[in-house]
Amino acid sequence: MISIISEWMQIFDDAPVRVFTKGDILFRRDDPVRSMYLVSTGAVALERPLTDGGHLTLHVAGAGAALAEASLFAETYHCDAVARSNASVAVLSRSNFAAELRQWPDAAMSMIETHARAVQAQRARIEILRLRRVSDRLDAWLDFHGEPPKGEWIIVADQIGVSPPALYRELARRRL
């Protein structure tokens, strides 16, 4: 049986897949919303250009993640989508995607569940980032997620907003 969390992704099963190379633009801020996206391989970032020439990364979608799905309810995109690596992306027209959700209530509910979990995780991350000490951030992250698989501590460093050396010093102190 298919997990309810991923059931909505089946909407993209017959969608054409486009291939992007690192640095390619999928869409730009203020472009009209015409398509919905599901990243099949690689990574695509949602970025907002800053006045100083830099970019604020709002989200990085990896394999199996929707991209700019909140745009379903917007007239234009609010940021740029840039391939962070070579990527394959399933592309479905906005109207077809919306029609599928209307016709398939279980898919709509699974999409709502997926996004509710993402909101919960983002709220937890915001609270973790508000903590001052590395030890407090790590405690909060571990309380929420549990210990990561071997070799993935560097991902934890990024998620709690500390440098890998700072995290490794804290882990050495704890002997984890």
TrEMBL record:
Q: Where is the Cyclic nucleotide-binding domain?
A: 10-97
Swiss-Prot/TrEMBL keywords: Kinase, Transferase
Cited CDD domains: CAP_ED
Q: Which Gene3D superfamilies match?
A: Jelly Rolls (2.60.120.10)
Q: Which domain of life is it from?
A: Bacteria
* Keyword Repeat appears in the UniProt entry: no
Q: Which PROSITE patterns match?
A: CNMP_BINDING_3
A Gene Ontology molecular-function term? kinase activity
- SMART domains in the record: cNMP (SM00100)
Q: Does the keyword Kinase apply?
A: yes
Provide the protein name: cAMP-binding domain of CRP or a regulatory subunit of cAMP-dependent protein kinases
Organism from which the protein derives: Jannaschia faecimaris
Q: What is the lineage of its organism?
A: Bacteria, Pseudomonadati, Pseudomonadota, Alphaproteobacteria, Rhodobacterales
